Amino acid sequence: ARWMAHAPKYDLRRLVHKLAGKSLLLIGAEGDIILPLDQHHEPLVEALRESGHGDLTVETLDTDHVFSSRRIALAHIVINWLNNRCKQPLADG
Question: How confident is the prediction for the chain on average, in pLDDT?
Fold first, then answer.
């Protein structure tokens, strides 16, 4: 793939320090042949854990690169994560 020629530019591990203090949800696709888990997702997860990142949620789904067979499951994961991590209480008014 063309992206491999420029892989160092797309290596998110070099930006881990900029993610400190942020809530992160990383979702990988087990059947991804474009960006296989072991080449992209897992190294980033490992780098985040090694950096001591505290608010990290990691999920994988048995599907392809675009989550074509698991889009409803993907939506549920994202919605549940947003509700649990990012939902602000409504102000009394």
Answer: 87
